[in-house]
Write a structure and sequence with these properties.
CATH topology: Hydantoin permease
Membrane topology: Multi-pass membrane protein
Number of strands: 0
Family: Belongs to the purine-cytosine permease (2.A.39) family.
Subcellular location: Membrane
Protein name: Cytosine permease
Number of domains: 1
Shape: globular
Strand content: under 5%
Organism: Pediococcus parvulus
Distance between the termini: 37 Å
Order of helices and strands: HHHHHHHHHHHHHHHHHHHH
Radius of gyration: 22 Å
Length: 458
């Protein structure tokens, strides 16, 4: 027997929306001003400097257009992204994008926590003489770092939305100082000309299309968190432009640093190794010391404040009876467990690459369906009250919109098939092609069904 409030949606009323342009901008700069962005920048160094830059600009700009679109949806409805997904996937069907959101944001939290814990192992080595992670006995410092980071996350989320804004404001200032410092150190040892002219060893070269897919997976991950924050603002331009500009600035800047730092290490050492794109390794090799490691730990907190908020909102959408605060505790504890996976797998890079493949494969079709439904099918008009009403406008068949669900599965299959085509891997990547195809088919079928319903009524 279903209770009346089973499908409740938390809508932020107009009078409670006070998020400023600076707070929104800082949130999205802080989301990308982190360890994971450094690491991704280092991975695309396998395209060479100019190839990496081109892939970064193309993939990030396209991805964050979708962030702006979802940001607008949050501003208009006052609902989280996963609550909004009920309109296109069905009130019950939204459990699919919600589950995806939980897994991917728990995954991103684990990625950032692992990198921060690695930095903490360097700090413990300096203070207590413990072995650095990667050396015999180094797991002790890593495990300690993971537990400390998890405790810090729990303290942060327990303090509410205001504490997240404070973390973002302080963190972004420290991060900017650190990045300027790292930039000076990099270009003191290696010239810009050397970096731009560096040739990737043939055995390590990454095709341009593969780089597009890697960056698309990284950037689209933020799109499904967009409305979770823009619902706290009462101005359209804040919801649309601040996320786009902030996220783009963060990813361009920090991926660029990861890119040039990794290339500079390859030039000075004579060996290119994608594992060296880890920020802790970069900071250590550049001789930046414990202060740099502390800042890396802080950047993890700024990014994970967003990750955990989005994951918690997704759990709250699936189980409305569980409060948002309890949902945040659940995903934080789950992320702590997941953070230990690379310890057993043996390679953080392999684990991270597999994770990116998963994110790119499952997120693109979801985002495409949501945006086409809202902007092209519903003409930017969702009824917020209907998002929680059983048997209402977004109930479809038994609470599930089977068309959206089937197209999501087909999108995943097409993605896997396209990745096996050399031309796609070399030039375009599969992610955005799949988004276009899924969105186009969804639009055609929905329009056909709506026209048929209108004729039947007439």
């Amino acid at each position: 027997m279903e209770t009346k409030d089973r499908y409740t949606v938390d809508i932020v009323p107009e009078e409670n929306r006070h998020m400023s342009y600076w707070d929104m901008f800082a949130t999205w700069v802080g989301a990308n001003a982190n360890n994971g962005t450094w690491f991704v920048g280092g991975i695309i160094a396998a395209c060479g400097f100019w190839g990496g830059i081109k892939a970064l600009i193309v993939a990030s700009s396209i991805s964050y257009i979708f962030l702006s679109l979802v940001g607008y949806m949050g501003y208009k409805t006052g609902a989280t992204t996963m609550a909004i997904s009920r309109a296109s996937f069905g009130i019950r069907g939204s459990i699919v994008p919600s589950m995806v959101n939980v897994t991917q944001f728990v995954g991103w939290t684990a990625v950032n926590t692992f990198i921060a814990a690695t930095s903490m192992s360097y700090i413990l080595h300096s203070l207590l003489g413990w072995p650095v992670y990667g050396q015999p006995g180094g797991n002790k410092g890593l495990v300690f770092g993971i537990l400390v980071m998890s405790i810090l996350h729990l303290i942060s989320i327990s303090s509410g939305q205001r504490s997240i804004q404070i973390i973002e404001r302080i963190g972004i200032i420290l991060v900017i100082i650190f990045v300027l410092w790292e930039s000076i150190v990099v270009f003191r040892d290696v010239s810009f000309s050397q970096i731009t002219n560096w040739k990737v060893p043939n055995m390590h070269k990454m095709p341009f299309g593969a780089a597009i897919d890697t960056l698309a997976a990284f950037n689209l991950a933020w799109v499904t968190a967009g409305a979770d924050f823009t619902r706290f603002t009462n101005k359209k331009h804040i919801a649309v432009t601040a996320p786009f500009i902030g996220a783009d600035l963060g990813v361009f800047w920090f991926a660029f640093i990861g890119l040039v730092a990794t290339i500079s290490i390859a030039i000075t050492s004579g060996v290119y190794d994608a594992n060296n794109s880890d920020p802790s390794t970069i900071a250590n090799r550049l001789g930046l010391g414990s202060i740099a490691m502390i800042v890396i730990v802080l950047t993890s907190m700024t990014a994970n404040a967003v990750n955990l908020q989005a994951a918690g909102s997704a759990v709250n959408n699936m189980f409305p009876k569980i409060s948002l605060k309890k949902s945040l505790w659940i995903v934080t504890i789950l992320a702590t467990v997941v953070t230990f996976v690379p310890v057993f797998v043996g390679s953080f890079l392999d684990t991270f690459t597999a994770f990116l493949d998963y994110v790119g494969m499952v997120l693109g079709p979801i985002i495409s369906i949501m945006c086409v439904d809202y902007f092209l099918i519903r003409d930017r008009n969702y009824q917020a009250k209907e998002l929680s009403r059983k048997g209402g406008q977004y109930w479809y068949q038994g609470g599930i919109h089977w068309l959206a669900f089937v197209l999501w599965v087909l999108g995943v299959v097409v993605y896997l098939l396209l990745q096996k085509i050399n031309w796609v891997e070399d030039y375009t990547g599969a992610t955005f092609i799949v988004m276009i195809l899924v969105g186009f088919v969804y639009y055609l079928v929905m329009k056909f069904n709506l026209n048929k319903e209108e004729k039947h009524v007439n």
